[in-house]
Structure formats: structure tokens, C-alpha cells
């Protein structure tokens, strides 16, 4: 299928950031079920791994960005982590934008490096939703999604909020449950090639459709995993990264779009602010959807991927289902999506979820992704969203600085 | 949070939205109307979400709408919400969209675009919530 080639020109596309910053180190902890490991320990282990991967030491780090952990909420998360590591940063912040935190934080970090707020920034996240969340915390997470007065009383669960998007897309464009299931199948095909993924056994469209209904039209296998895990990266200037242990992965573009908080107040159920996020990221990068060799798209539930494929310009609006059916997302497809397995099959420890998509993108662009390597990958897009398709960030990464 | 496992989730009280909840108790769906642009809005705010004006007043509306989208929750959020139940986004005849439940015998009868009529349901000790049912055709 032909993908539309387009990008937009913006008044200030943020070109001051383009190519100036690079990812120099990455690390994931083990993921899945890790009883007895606290979120802070996972976060610290990942941070130390990323620092070592970059060929740096803790003393080189002068910026620390984190997000809070649901299973171990702290008033001053980033400060607590700096204390644990015994580092004394000049830039230290914990950011909260739900699942979108991961990449909005990278956008901020890149800006902080270019403006001189810090030289070497560690971005680290970890949580243990699978093993450490108490029943009360789990109920709280479910019940605190949505507007307290006008949504929560009606008893929507998190999958139910996303099911509203799926149902609207099906009604408007004729998208089918089989097409949604195809997204879960493709993620599992990638995960089967990834020794670190939590779920690696192949699944079929029938398996998805015969798994139990959670919130129509979403079945159990349309929903992401619940996991423990931590992940971290080291970000510094492109110049400095060139002298470090690995080939730098360059930050070419970033864009955000924020359209609503509550799904009942969304501008549209079927077109999200991923559209603006993508347009802005591509405009900064000077590249378009056709230039991407892979995409890591936020997949808390299958319909999010469907809408993102369309809004990020990989296919036309309404054609996401057919695009999935074409096999594009699978290993060897025209646009491999979630090459590590995604939140659906690799792991989903809550807000840190997309960090694993980012470290995977770095391994792909270093050409170090083993059996799941996308041949000759040059450029990749990563995208994350938080809320109910509320806040979106897209990043364009490349193994080339130009 | 007050014992979420055993009780329905109650809307927190607030002065701005009180006419909405008072209306529900009196069997009337009330929305804010803007005198500047002659449009209704939901949820209630201190400014008009269409034009930014502040000449807002409460008016009773028809209580008719259509299903913008819906889902059947198969695994309830707590024992106070026995599944299956329908959570829907309702496009009201007067313009605004709101979330609600659709009370229906057979959840298979709900579809996007279906016509709805409001009804009012006691909620906890002293709240009343607007919910919807399929309109008689
Ligand atoms: Zn107005």
C-alpha cells in the first residue's frame, strides 16, 4: 500500500534542536514478573546500565529526569533517585504525562542540553505494576481515570475508555475486530524474535477474537500486559556522543500534540493529536512518514495503534485496518511496528512502558537488534500517548546526523 | 476514596455544577447556555467553551440524543457495578457530548447512532444521575 508523503511547514519547527542531541547509552532491566524488586531498584539498575553502556560514570551525569512509580509513589521521585545514586545534578525533575511522559521527557531533555541546563542527562523510569501494586492502588488507578464528576460515576474501566475509540472507528470507517486483532498478532510476531519479551508464543487473529471480551469490541489479547521493569537512556550533545562507546543515535525531530484530557471532551474520537505531534516532529526532522524504516507506536490497546498509523501519516484516515491487513506491521513488512513486541507483548509496567520502545529504537538504529533487526534501518519514529489519546509525543531518530 | 469496592462512585460536590445535580433530582437535564453565542456546553465551566464569553445560565434541555460511541463493560470496575453494562458517549440534541450509561435489557441492541432518551437514576444515598435508554421507535 502506498503511504501518503507529506509534512507541514510550521512557524517555528524547532530546528535549533535538530541533530544537536544524541542518545549515547541505553539499558533495560529484565521485564515481566519480578517479585521483590522495588520500582526504585529497577529504575536505578536501568540507569546504571545506561551510564555504563555510554562509557560514562555516575560523576558525568548532571541531569536526571524520571517519572513517578504507581507502585511506589514518591513526592520527590527524581530527587530520591539522585540521592540513591549519590549524584548531585543541576537539572533534576520528575515529569507526569501518563504514558506520554516517556517521549515528552526526551523532548524536554533535548531542549535542556541545547540550552545548557545540563550536559549529560539520564532519563530513567521503572515500575512494578505486576508484583507490587496493592489491590487498593490498582482500584485507585482504574477509578481515577476519567472526569471525577461526569465520567467516573458511570463505571468505565481503562479498557472501556479505549473501547469507545475502537467502536467509533468501526462505525465511521468499517474497521473490523479482525483488523484490530491483526495488530496484536503483529506485535507478538516481533516479540517471538525478542528473547527479552514477556510473551513470545505466537498468536492468531482467532486467538485474539476467542479470548474473553473485556469491553466490546476489545478482547483480552487486544489489551497490553501488566509488567514489572525499568529502562533508561543517556542523552548528551551530538558532539560529545561521537566520542563515546557506541555510534550515536541522533535526535532529528520532536513534536507534541495535546487535545483533551477527558474522552467525552475530545475534539474527535477517531482523529487524535498524534496528527499534530507527527506533523511537528517530521517538520523539525525534514523527513516524512515514507522515510521511516520502522515505527514504535503506543499500543496500550490495539485501537490506539490503528488511529496512530493514520494520524502519523503512514496511511490515509480510515485505512488503518486495511494497512494492518496488508501485513505492513509484521517483521519484514513495509513498516515494522513495535519491533520489540510493544506494550502488547514485550512489557507494560505503566508509565515507563514506552521507554522500552525507545531503547529498542536505539538498538535498531545501531544495527544491534539481533534476530529482529530491520535491515539497513536508518530512520525510525517513536510515539507515545497518555490519558485517553490525550497527549501525544512523536520523535524522529536516526543513525545519521544530517 | 470512599470504599470503592462496595459503593457506586459518587460525583464530588461543587458549587458551579450544583444546578446540574439539582436538575437531575428534579427529573430535568440542565446544561449551561451561553447568551453571547447561543450555544450549550458540557461539562459546566466558568467560561463558554465556544466563544469564551461568561454570560452563562442554566437551561433545561430535551434529554434526547444519539449514541456517538459505546462499549459493553464485561468486567465491572467494582462489585457495585455488576457487568455487563453499557458505557456510552451521548451526543445531545442541543450539541454537547456527555458520558453516561445506557440501561437496556439486551446489550446487543445498542448501536452507534441509536436514538436515546434520558432518565434519572438514584445513585447512592442522596444523588441522582442522568442515564439513558433507547428511544421507542
Ligand atoms: Zn459562547
Shape of chain A: globular
**Percent strand of chain A:** 15-25%
Structural class of chain B: mainly beta
Distance between the termini of chain A: 28 Å
What topology, given as strand order, has the largest sheet of chain B? 6-5-4-7-8
Gyration radius from CA atoms of chain B, angstroms: 16 Å
Q: Which regions of chain B contain 5 or more consecutive residues with pLDDT less than 50? A: none
Mean pLDDT of chain B: 94
Tally of helical runs of chain B: 1
Order of helices and strands of chain B: HEEEEEEEE
Secondary-structure content class of chain A: alpha/beta
The biggest beta sheet of chain A reads: 9 strands, mixed
Q: Indicate the CATH class of the domain at 21-133 and 228-241 in chain A.
A: Alpha Beta
What is the subunit arrangement here? Answer: heterodimer
Helix content of chain B: under 10%
Indicate the low-confidence ranges of chain A by residue numbers. Answer: 1-9
Fraction of residues of chain A in helices?
25-40%
Bound molecules: zinc ion
Describe this structure in words.
- The complex is a heterodimer of chains A (402) and B (137).
- Chain A has 402 residues and is α/β, with parallel strands linked by helices.
- Chain A has 13 helices and 11 strands.
- Chain A has a domain at 21-133 and 228-241: Peroxisomal Thiolase, Chain A, domain 1.
- Chain A has helices at 39-54, 77-85, 101-114, 135-143, 158-173, 177-192, 205-210, 238-241, 274-285, 302-311, 320-325, 342-345, 355-365, and strands at residues 21-28, 63-66, 91-94, 120-128, 213-215, 218-219, 228-237, 249-258, 294-296, 379-386, 391-398.
- In chain A, α5 (158-173) crosses α10 and α9 crosses α10.
- The radius of gyration of chain A is 19 Å and the shape is globular.
- Mean pLDDT of chain A is 95; it is low at 1-9.
- Chain B has 137 residues and is mainly β.
- Chain B is 6% helix and 39% strand.
- Chain B has one helix at residues 18-25, and strands at 30-34, 40-41, 56-60, 64-73, 85-92, 97-102, 115-123, 127-134.
- In chain B, β1 (30-34) and β2 (40-41) form a beta hairpin.
- Chain A binds chain B through residues 139-140, 142-143, 146-157, 160, 163-168, 171, 212-218, 263-265, 269, and chain B through 1, 4-5, 8-12, 14, 17, 42-43, 68-78, 80-81, 85, 87-89, 97-101, 111-113, 123, 129, 131.
- The complex binds zinc ion (ZN).
- The site of zinc ion has 8 residues of chain B, from loops.
Amino acid at each position: 500500500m502506498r503511504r501518503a508523503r507529506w509534512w507541514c511547514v510550521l512557524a517555528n519547527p524547532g530546528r535549533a534542536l535538530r541533530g544537536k542531541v544524541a542518545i549515547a547509552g541505553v539499558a533495560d532491566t529484565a521485564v515481566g514478573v519480578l517479585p521483590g524488586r522495588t520500582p526504585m531498584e529497577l529504575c536505578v539498575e536501568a540507569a546504571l546500565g545506561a551510564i555504563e553502556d555510554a562509557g560514562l560514570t555516575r560523576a558525568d551525569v548532571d541531569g536526571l529526569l524520571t517519572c513517578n512509580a504507581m507502585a511506589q509513589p514518591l513526592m520527590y521521585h527524581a530527587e530520591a533517585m539522585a540521592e540513591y545514586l549519590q549524584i548531585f545534578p543541576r537539572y533534576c525533575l520528575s515529569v507526569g504525562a501518563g504514558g506520554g511522559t516517556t517521549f515528552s521527557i526526551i523532548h524536554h531533555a533535548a531542549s535542556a542540553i541545547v540550552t545548557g541546563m545540563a550536559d549529560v542527562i539520564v532519563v530513567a523510569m521503572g515500575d512494578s505494576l505486576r508484583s507490587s501494586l496493592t489491590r487498593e492502588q490498582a482500584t485507585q488507578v482504574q477509578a481515577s481515570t476519567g472526569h471525577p464528576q461526569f465520567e467516573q460515576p458511570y463505571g468505565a474501566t481503562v479498557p472501556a475508555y479505549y473501547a469507545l475509540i475502537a467502536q467509533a472507528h468501526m462505525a465511521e470507517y468499517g474497521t473490523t475486530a479482525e483488523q484490530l486483532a491483526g495488530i496484536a498478532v503483529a506485535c507478538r510476531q516481533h516479540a517471538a524474535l525478542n528473547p527479552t519479551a514477556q510473551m513470545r508464543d505466537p498468536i492468531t487473529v482467532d486467538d485474539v477474537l476467542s479470548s474473553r471480551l473485556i469491553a466490546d469490541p476489545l478482547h483480552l489479547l487486544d489489551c497490553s500486559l501488566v509488567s514489572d521493569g525499568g529502562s533508561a537512556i543517556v542523552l548528551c550533545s551530538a558532539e560529545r556522543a561521537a566520542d563515546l562507546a557506541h555510534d550515536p543515535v541522533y535526535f532529528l525531530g520532536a513534536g507534541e500534540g495535546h487535545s483533551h484530557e477527558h474522552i467525552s471532551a475530545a475534539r474527535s474520537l477517531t482523529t487524535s493529536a498524534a496528527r499534530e505531534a507527527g506533523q511537528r516532529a517530521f517538520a523539525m526532522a525534514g523527513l516524512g512518514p515514507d522515510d521511516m524504516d520502522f515505527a514504535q507506536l503506543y499500543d496500550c490497546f490495539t485501537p490506539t495503534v490503528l488511529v496512530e498509523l493514520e494520524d502519523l501519516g503512514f496511511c490515509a484516515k480510515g485505512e488503518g485496518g486495511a494497512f494492518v491487513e496488508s501485513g505492513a506491521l509484521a517483521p519484514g513488512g513495509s513498516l515494522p511496528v513495535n519491533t520489540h513486541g510493544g506494550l502488547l507483548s514485550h512489557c507494560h509496567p505503566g508509565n515507563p512502558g514506552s521507554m522500552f520502545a525507545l531503547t529498542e529504537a536505539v538498538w535498531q538504529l545501531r544495527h544491534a537488534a539481533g534476530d529482529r533487526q530491520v535491515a539497513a534501518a536508518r530512520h525510525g519514529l517513536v510515539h507515545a500517548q497518555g490519558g485517553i489519546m490525550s497527549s501525544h509525543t512523536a520523535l524522529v531518530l536516526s543513525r545519521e546526523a544530517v | 476514596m470512599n470504599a470503592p469496592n462496595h459503593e457506586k462512585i459518587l460525583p464530588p460536590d461543587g458549587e458551579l455544577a450544583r444546578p446540574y445535580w439539582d436538575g437531575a433530582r428534579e427529573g430535568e437535564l440542565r446544561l449551561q447556555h451561553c447568551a453571547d453565542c447561543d450555544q450549550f456546553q458540557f461539562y459546566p465551566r466558568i467560561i463558554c467553551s465556544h466563544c469564551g464569553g461568561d454570560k452563562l445560565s442554566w437551561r433545561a434541555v430535551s434529554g434526547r440524543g444519539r449514541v456517538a460511541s459505546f462499549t459493553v463493560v464485561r468486567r465491572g470496575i467494582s462489585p457495585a457495578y455488576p457487568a455487563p453494562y453499557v458505557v456510552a458517549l451521548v451526543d445531545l440534541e442541543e450539541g454537547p457530548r456527555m458520558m453516561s450509561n445506557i440501561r437496556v435489557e439486551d446489550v446487543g441492541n445498542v448501536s452507534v447512532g441509536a436514538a436515546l432518551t434520558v432518565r434519572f437514576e438514584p445513585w447512592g444515598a442522596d444523588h441522582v444521575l442522568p442515564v439513558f435508554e433507547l428511544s421507542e421507535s
